[in-house]
Structure formats: structure tokens, C-alpha cells
């Protein structure tokens, strides 16, 4: 039986982690309002008219500093650990350019895993995401995503087709000055047991191979993206993310974002198999490309089957350099200074408007 003193120490420790997490969440909210909303508007007004590419690179830098701060805090303070396996480390030297990322979607924590992988190659700020249109209506974060060229989808192919083409051509147009890693979740939604059952029934009705751990991918968007970007990307990064089912099944996987930032009961591990596929290995015609995308998910499903049987992916681990302990603080300080400037400008602007209105 733990002593009373030991229980008090554990309670104090958990309370401290909770307080730190809530403080960090407040910092994210305030800093994103300023550095993710106000500062981009200032850059849009005063920098883009004279140097459009500098405006875009500046926004990339802001995103990189912000997202690196988030993943570094989760790792250093909250015991969030991403275990990467696959051929990524050995092939990145040969294929360092623009990428299309195909990823399964299990939880909101998937984004932290993608941040982690991108951070190891200095590409966090170059990430772009396909996202549901509803995100743009989320206060503060929706506007920040808009400035970062997220591709917002309505899940109506007639409307989405033209939007995807327009956004991808914008990304291609700016890719001469800035690289990109474009993230697509082909399943279109997070998996849960109810959706998985419906997906398996759909697969059987269409004579497709049912999947045990994934939803049948929606291939139209990824296929169109590959066709548009095939001259701009050098490879596709296939990410397969897995969570330990001992802590929760599909729809209730752990760690959640609350676990990752507010609870440090254990070391939260998330596994990701990262395989790089050269663009030269991708089929060119539409029908073959659609079949290829489905087969990618069949292979991902087989990897997940092995993972849930063995507890690890059947691939060699990717070893990355350990960052200096002070680096997270540098990112947080830099982003805080930029956010402080944005807030100061916002307050000054409001004060000027009020003073003008009074006169």
C-alpha cells in the first residue's frame, strides 16, 4: 500500500502536469489568435504586395515554430513518444523534395505524429492538410488554417473537385520558392467500430477486399491530387499510424489530446510505419492509379494486423538525432514574441478606432 506521503506526492505531480497543460493550452489559444490570425493579416497587407513569396515563407516559418513547440512540449513534458519504423530514414536522402502524404485516420493525435515526422526533416512549417470545411468555422484555428493554404472539403465531389484543383495549382505555383508536404487522409473521417462495419459491408457490395483495421479509402481526391502534382513531387510518404488497443478500441483510442497534454500517468506511445514510395513507381493511368491506392490500404491493413498481433510494426526502426534540451524553449519564446507583437498591434488598432470614434 502506498504511504500517505507517496499519494500526496503523486497528487501534487498530477496537479502540476494538469496546471502546466492548461497553461500551455491557453498559450496555444492566445498565440494562435495573434501569430496565426493578426500577424498573417498584417503580413497580407504590408508584405505580400511587395514580396508575395516572402509573405508565404514567413507564414511557413510561423507554422513551423508553432507546431514544433506543440510536439516538443508533448514529448519533453508529457511523455508522448512517437516510434517510427520503415524505409523513410534511408530513402529521404535520395528523395528530399515535395511530398504527398497518405495517412490513415484514427484520432486527433494523428496530427502530432505527422508533426513529429515532419520535424525530423525541418518540414513542419511546410505541411498542408486536406481538411473538412467545418474546420474553417472553428474560431481562431479555422482562420489560421485558411492562411496556411489548407484544402477545405465539403465531401461533395462536384464542388470539391474544382476546389482541390484550384488549391493544388496555387500550391504548385508557390512551390518554386517553398517546398510542401501535402497530407491527405483518404478514409475521409476517423475510424470507429460502427464506421468500420459499414465500410466492410460497402467493400463486399463492391467486390473489394474488406479491411480489418481501416476504412475503404475514397480514391478520387488522392488520385486527382497525384495527377496534378506528379511533376512537382518526388515521392509519396505512406504513413500507417497505430495505437495500443489495450488502452482503447477504435473510436476511443488513447492517448487522446487530453491524455497527451494533461495526463502523464504513463509514457504514451504511438507507432507509425513510414514508407517512402518514389513517384516513378506510381501508375500513370487513372484506373491503375485507383487500384494502386486501394492496394496501398490493403498493405497498410496487413501492417496493422501484424502490429496488433506483435505490438510492433514488422520493419526496422528509424533513428533520429536527439535535439538539444533547450530547443523547445527557443521555439516557444520566438512564437511568444511574435504573438506579443501581434497582440500589441491589435490593441493599438482598437485603441485608435475607439479614440477616432469619440472625436
Automatic annotation (TrEMBL):
Keyword Endoplasmic reticulum: no
Location of the Phospholipid/glycerol acyltransferase domain: 99-223
Alphabetized InterPro entries for the sequence: Acyltransf_C, Plipid/glycerol_acylTrfase
Organism superkingdom: Eukaryota
Any Pfam family: Acyltransferase
Keywords of the record: Acyltransferase, Membrane, Transferase, Transmembrane, Transmembrane helix
GO molecular function, one term: acyltransferase activity
Membrane-crossing segments per the record: 24-47, 100-119, 135-153, 332-357
Any one GO cellular component localisation term in the record: endomembrane system
Family: Belongs to the 1-acyl-sn-glycerol-3-phosphate acyltransferase family.
Name of the protein in its database record: Phospholipid/glycerol acyltransferase domain-containing protein
Annotated source species: Guillardia theta (strain CCMP2712) (Cryptophyte)
Lineage, highest ranks first: Eukaryota, Cryptophyceae, Pyrenomonadales, Geminigeraceae, Guillardia
Amino acid at each position: 500500500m502506498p504511504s500517505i506521503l507517496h499519494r500526496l506526492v503523486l497528487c501534487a505531480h498530477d496537479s502540476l502536469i494538469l496546471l502546466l497543460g492548461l497553461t500551455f493550452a491557453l498559450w496555444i489559444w492566445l498565440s494562435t489568435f495573434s501569430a496565426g490570425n493578426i500577424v498573417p493579416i498584417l503580413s497580407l497587407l504590408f508584405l505580400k504586395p511587395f514580396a508575395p513569396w516572402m509573405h508565404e515563407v514567413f507564414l511557413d516559418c510561423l507554422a513551423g515554430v508553432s507546431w514544433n513547440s506543440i510536439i516538443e512540449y508533448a514529448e519533453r513534458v508529457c511523455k508522448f513518444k512517437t516510434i517510427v519504423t520503415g524505409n523513410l530514414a534511408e530513402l529521404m536522402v535520395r528523395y528530399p523534395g515535395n511530398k504527398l502524404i497518405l495517412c490513415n485516420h484514427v484520432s486527433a493525435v494523428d496530427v502530432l505524429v505527422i508533426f513529429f515526422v515532419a520535424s525530423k526533416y525541418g518540414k513542419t512549417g511546410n505541411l498542408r492538410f486536406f481538411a473538412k470545411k467545418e474546420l474553417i468555422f472553428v474560431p481562431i484555428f479555422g482562420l489560421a488554417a485558411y492562411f496556411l493554404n489548407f484544402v477545405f472539403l465539403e465531401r461533395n465531389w462536384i464542388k470539391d473537385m474544382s476546389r482541390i484543383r484550384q488549391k493544388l495549382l496555387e500550391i504548385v505555383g508557390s512551390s518554386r520558392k517553398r517546398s510542401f508536404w501535402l497530407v491527405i487522409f483518404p478514409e475521409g473521417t476517423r475510424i470507429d467500430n460502427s464506421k468500420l462495419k459499414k465500410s466492410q459491408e460497402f467493400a463486399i457490395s463492391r467486390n473489394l477486399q474488406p479491411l480489418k483495421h481501416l476504412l475503404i479509402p475514397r480514391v478520387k481526391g488522392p488520385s486527382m491530387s497525384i495527377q496534378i502534382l506528379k511533376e512537382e513531387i518526388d515521392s509519396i510518404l505512406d504513413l500507417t499510424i497505430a495505437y495500443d488497443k489495450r488502452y482503447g478500441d477504435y473510436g476511443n483510442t488513447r492517448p487522446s489530446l487530453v491524455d497527451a497534454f494533461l495526463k502523464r500517468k504513463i509514457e504514451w506511445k504511438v507507432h507509425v510505419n513510414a514508407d517512402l514510395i518514389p513517384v516513378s513507381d506510381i501508375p500513370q493511368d487513372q484506373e491503375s492509379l485507383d487500384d494502386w491506392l486501394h492496394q496501398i490500404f490493403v498493405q497498410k491493413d496487413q501492417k496493422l494486423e501484424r502490429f496488433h498481433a506483435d505490438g510492433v510494426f514488422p520493419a526496422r526502426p528509424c533513428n533520429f538525432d536527439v535535439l538539444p534540451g533547450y530547443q523547445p524553449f527557443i521555439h516557444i519564446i520566438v512564437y511568444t514574441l511574435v504573438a506579443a507583437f501581434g497582440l500589441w498591434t491589435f490593441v493599438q488598432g482598437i485603441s485608435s478606432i475607439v479614440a477616432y470614434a469619440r472625436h
